[in-house]
Design a protein that fits this description.
Layout: H1 6-18, E1 24-25, E2 31-32, H2 47-56, H3 60-81, E3 83-93, E4 96-103, E5 112-116, E6 121-126, E7 129-131, E8 137-142, E9 145-153, E10 156-163, E11 167-174, E12 177-186, H4 187-193, E13 195-198, E14 207-216, E15 222-228, E16 235-240, E17 243-248, E18 251-252, E19 260-262, E20 270-278, E21 281-288, E22 292-299, E23 302-309, E24 328-337, H5 338-349, E25 352-355, E26 362-371, H6 372-382, E27 385-390, E28 393-398, H7 399-419, E29 423-428, H8 434-441, E30 454-458, E31 463-468, H9 470-483, E32 489-515, E33 518-520, E34 526-529, E35 535-539, E36 545-549, E37 557-559, E38 566-573, E39 579-598, E40 601-605, E41 610-623, E42 629-646, E43 651-667, E44 670-685, E45 690-706, E46 721-741, H10 743-747
Parallel strand pairs: 3-7, 14-18, 25-28
Antiparallel strand pairs: 1-2, 3-4, 4-12, 5-6, 5-24, 6-10, 8-9, 9-10, 11-12, 13-16, 14-15, 15-23, 16-17, 17-21, 19-20, 20-21, 22-23, 22-26, 24-26, 27-28, 29-31, 30-31, 32-37, 32-39, 32-40, 32-46, 33-34, 34-35, 35-36, 38-39, 41-42, 42-43, 43-44, 45-46
Helix pairs in contact: 1-3, 5-6
Length: 748
Amino acid sequence: MKQLTDTAKNSFIGRILTQGAGQCVRPGGARTAACAGEFQKPSVQFGIFGNFMNRLAQSPVRLLLLLMALFVFVAPAQADDQNSISALSVSTGNGVTIIKVKLTQPLARLPATFTINTPPRIVFDFPNTANGLGKSVQDFSEGNLRSANIVQAGSRTRLVVNLDQMLTYDSKLDGKNLLLTLHNKSADIVASRASRFAEAKEGAQQHELRDIAFHRGKNGEGRIEVDLSDPGIGIDIKQQGTSLIVNFLKTSLPRNLQRKMDVVDFATPVQNVDTYAQGDNVRMVIEPTGNWEDSAYQTDNKFIVEVRPVTANPDKLAQGGTGYKGAKLTLNFQKIDVREALNVIADFTGTNMVISDTVSGNITLRLKDVPWDQALDIILQSRGLAMRKIGNVIQVAPSAEIAAKEKLELTSHQEISELQDLRTESFQISYQKADAIATLLSSDKQRILSKRGSAVVDARTNTLFVQDTPDRLDEVRKLIKQIDVPVRQVMIEARIVEATDNFSKNLGVRLGYNSSDAFSVGNSSRLFGNIGANQANMPGPTGTPVLTTMPANLPNVNLPSAGTAGTFSMLLFNSSVSKLLSVELTALETDSKGKIISSPRVVTSDQTEATIATGTEIPYQQASSSGATNVAFKSATLSLSVKPQITPDDNIIMDIKVNKDSVGALYAGVPSINTNAVTTQVLVENGGTVVIGGVYLQQQSNGVNKVPLLGDIPVLGYLFRSTAKLDNKSELLVFITPKIIKDAMSLR
């Protein structure tokens, strides 16, 4: 039978819909000639074939045959409306490669497209289009063009162009053909100079920016949010020097938005954002500082630029990076269904994705070189959606629906746990004390057991009995396995070094004069005496000399040194030995050096304080309240008190107190204690040594005792003065060396 033309089909369908309009079926199956004026159009006659169809419509069987005929004629008509890719061809020349995609019908607009950097691919989605090539792969091997994959899924066909490296490209429609032009220049080189974020729609429409806002992101990035009048604005992004330039093509800017925003106080890499009109376009100049990287994306009428700080790491070849690690893709969709956008990401990543029936609405996306997981996050946030990952399946639904499901699951789990049977399990504790673990499990502040759970301890065998639900028993078992382990031990050795260097020098003189000559004082008898004393011999009543003390303070030089190591004396007299001059020089020089090394050491477990001490108890007598005396003691000790804490990286934190005491002088019969002490907290590596404290003491003194005036005479003045020089030095250093004791060391 020859296929009918479209006009014949339409006439035939009209005949089917209008034939028998004068009859209708009432309840009960009765037919009537007119049913309230329904189907009153005149019937369309179609010759003998029309009369045949009129007979078919008069019975249920005929009606069934009528529907079958309708399907037979309408299905080819629908099939004729579907487009098809009929051929693929490639031509090269003038530094470009042109791919021609031939279709059976012209396209109304360019198909949706996106790119993939790794591996380099360009993807086109043809809606309501079939694969008419009869194959899914076609090899080219022309320059950087390798092959193309043509995959049909339902009524949609995807064309994937595989490249050796990512190239810049243009696409346009030419009748029934789609022309894809590949420029033989790396996309990275072109992108470093300028980046066309979005193409402007054809036409004379003038666009407008509605609002410009700046926000600080949670990770310290600067976010410039621009409200667009419509999603079809063309946008160019490029880096010029240290600034980021964004051009909005064929766009106007209200006067209230023509301003320069100072955003230094937001503490982001962005310092200023300057927006102004430039001819028919609007230019936005973003001025960041330091190391930074940028990304831009658009959802519907919202365009967002993010500038993130980059911390330089000399060990990394590529600096920067965010929390998104997925392969980068480029999406450019205008009012695409949200479900379709999610399907594109699922196809790109090969991820199993379940989308709830309540997910609906359209979205406009312009993403360039964005990690796919960030693109998914952007879509979810812009439409108020959330996701749950169960194994290797991602479930997408509205946030409220996800929250309601999670709440329902938690409530059900809690109700089930409250109805579970209780079980009892015993735990043999090896290294901890069972009562300490029982207290931890049943603590009121942070209870690990359930409300119905309990813990009992057998102190004799150090066994813990726990009664609770099976789930809580599993948690208790894991907890005990984690904390019931041997405690690590640390040996702490201290070295207390005390060094002294003492030097003293003393020089003294004694000078005296003696005379046997007699002399008179007034009308008195003759006197005999010497200079250097206040005594004289006077004649008594019988003429015998009597030693008499004179009240006069006769001159005398008596300045000996504090200590005597050597004495030099000299006696001068006249020829008659009646006058004597005696000179005595005394000198002492002391130089001493000493060193005392004390080395206390102690072994203790992790986070347990230990103390070691040695010294002397010094007795002394003291008066009691009753008036009697009793014996008391004072301690002069060398002690080390330490509390170590072993860190996960085998370093040691220590709270240390070191005392070095010695006996001092007696004051009223009570001894004094010379104390040297240091209290501190330090972090030391295992086996390392650190100086935790030191005391350096130096005592210097120069003393001169002399006879006024006479002691200042050059050279001769030494006979009338004594000197003492003192230079004492003492130093105290405290060294600490901790060592973690390994198991093998403990066995030895």
